[in-house]
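pinned: reference chain
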Amino acid sequence: MFQLNEDETNNMVSQNAIPSKQHLGGHLPFVFTEHGVLMLANVLKSESAMQMSIYIIEIFVRLREMLLTHKDILLKLEQLEKQVIQNSGDINRIFSALKQLLNPPSAPRPRIGFKIKE
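pinned: its structure tokens
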């Protein structure tokens, strides 16, 4: 068990983990690690305490699984970002070529065809 600092508490409030700091009674909250919950489950012997401890451990397991899943997604996003950065130069060249095609030069062109010598 350890106590959260001010920044961690603000982060919990901003992520809606807790509605506001008023719900904490003006104090910094104490929290448990996954191992701390397991140790607590071994100490508390009431039926409701054991069920709650098991429920909290299951939540930690789900959080770990979610982090691993999101880690894969973050790696894919990083790969896509690198590809976009590499392709951005090509895309800029394509747009500049398209702009040149849409805005042809306005200089007069020489006439084509039969010319009479004077």
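why pinned: DSSP finds three helices and two strands in the chain. The helical segments are 6-14, 34-43, 47-102.
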